[in-house]
């Protein structure tokens, strides 16, 4: 089989990273996956296979005929069996291209989040329902994401399946990178409203009352980074909050930190938690999206109700004060047994075959 994986653009975001890793494993299994980028970008995604660009314009996504035509030309030349749209605007481009240029391949959509939190108006629901009607299969990243999708669009229930995100094996990395702090608290993720950095700073302020020598290490980049840097300066926290920007070697930080924190307000099933598990790094996270499917409270990590910054801080204190070796072991076993990308890729192949 040949699968075209449509992704937003070359960027080190979860959807693009997973599509790249998934495509690599699909190729290893004897099939062929190729990446198609909707918008321009320069990030070095971990995929050595064939790549295409259609040079779309985000401000013209509802009338970007030239880009839709380029996508159709790629499909005509490559003759794929499946077109998979991976979040962002990828489904819009696939549907408009299919409508105008009449290619026949089935579309699969990967639902990587809790879409009801984005589709709020009746007009948005109607428009997105139109796009979803062209999908032969909707593959949700978690059971909660699937349940949310079915509640919003019950008529597509029979097209919905669940295949979680996975990770590649993480080896012990050698690095001179040092994480200061007693303890060293880590957050890995883009600076977007979903990741909730502003509340994270408030949580860390509370945490400093118990651990005044703590340091917070923020790995990632994004549109809200400058505003968070300004907030840190306003609160006079610049001596204990560190910004690293985008890094390809996030596991280096995970292997040296004392706790990963994820106070997100919206998530699907974040791979960063699985990476932390693989590095035996304890996790404290908000109970949003499908996080509870992997962070099982006080079993594989600490789960906190969204918005309860006092409870979040208390969980951090509990984890740091009383490290739990059994919790780390259970988290590591979970990711090794259920969330390895080579096994996840086999599940995608089965769904592709069933569809064809």
Let me know the CATH homologous superfamily of the largest domain.
Glycogen Phosphorylase B
The Rg value, from CA coordinates, equals: 21 Å
Tell me what the CATH architecture of the largest domain is. 3-Layer(aba) Sandwich
The low-confidence parts are none
The H/E string reads: EHEEHEHEHEHEEHEHEHEHEEHHH
| Helix content range | 25-40%
Strand order of the largest sheet: 3-2-1-4-5-6-7
Would you tell me the overall average pLDDT?
94
Count of DSSP-assigned helices: 12
Instruction: Give the total of domains.
Output: 2
- Structural class, by secondary structure, is alpha/beta
How is this structure best described in words?
The protein has twelve helices and 13 strands. It has helices spanning 14-28, 65-78, 90-101, 122-132, 143-152, 197-210, 225-234, 250-254, 271-278, 309-321, 325-338, 341-355, and strands at residues 2-7, 32-37, 51-53, 82-86, 107-111, 135-140, 160-162, 184-188, 215-219, 241-245, 259-262, 283-286, 302-304. 45% of the residues are buried. The chain is globular. The chain has 356 residues and is of the alpha/beta class. The strands form two sheets. A seven-stranded parallel β-sheet has the order 3-2-1-4-5-6-7, with helices on both faces. The chain has two domains: 2-166 and 340-355, Rossmann fold (3-Layer(aba) Sandwich); 184-338, 3-Layer(aba) Sandwich (Rossmann fold). β1, α1 (14-28) and β2 form a beta-alpha-beta unit. The model has no long low-confidence stretch (mean pLDDT 94).
């Amino acid at each position: 089989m040949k699968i075209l994986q449509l992704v937003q653009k070359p960027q080190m975001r979860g959807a693009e990273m997973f599509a790249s890793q998934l495509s690599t494993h699909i190729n290893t299994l004897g099939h062929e996956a190729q990446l198609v980028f909707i918008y321009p970008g320069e990030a070095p995604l971990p995929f050595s296979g064939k790549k295409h660009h259609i040079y779309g314009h985000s401000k013209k996504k509802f009338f970007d005929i030239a880009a839709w035509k380029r996508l159709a030309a790629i499909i005509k030349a490559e003759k794929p069996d499946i077109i998979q749209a991976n979040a962002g605007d990828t489904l819009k481009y696939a549907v408009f291209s299919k409508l105008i240029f009449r290619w026949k391949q089935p579309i699969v959509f990967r639902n990587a989040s809790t879409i009801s939190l984005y589709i709020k108006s009746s007009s948005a629901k109607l428009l997105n329902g139109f796009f979803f009607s062209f999908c032969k299969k909707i593959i949700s990243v978690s059971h909660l994401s699937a349940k949310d999708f079915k509640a919003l669009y019950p008529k597509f229930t029979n097209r919905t399946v669940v295949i979680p995100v996975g990770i590649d094996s993480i080896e012990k990395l050698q690095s001179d990178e040092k994480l200061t702090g007693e303890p060293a608290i880590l957050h890995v993720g883009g600076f977007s409203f979903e990741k909730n950095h502003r509340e994270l700073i408030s949580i860390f302020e509370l945490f400093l009352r118990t651990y005044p020598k703590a340091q917070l290490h923020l790995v990632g980049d994004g549109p809200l980074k400058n505003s968070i840097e300004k907030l840190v300066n306003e609160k006079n926290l610049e001596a204990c909050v560190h910004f690293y920007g985008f890094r390809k070697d996030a596991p280096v930080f995970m292997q040296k930190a004392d706790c990963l924190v994820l106070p997100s307000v919206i998530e699907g099933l974040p791979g960063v938690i699985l990476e932390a598990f693989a590095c035996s790094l304890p996790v404290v996270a908000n109970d949003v999206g499908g996080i509870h499917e992997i962070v099982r409270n006080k079993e594989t990590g600490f789960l906190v109700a969204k918005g309860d910054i006092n409870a979040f801080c208390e969980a951090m204190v509990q984890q740091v004060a009383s490290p739990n070796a059994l919790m780390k072991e259970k988290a590591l076993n979970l990711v090794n047994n259920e969330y390895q990308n080579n096994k996840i890729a086999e599940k995608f192949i089965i769904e592709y075959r069933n569809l064809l």
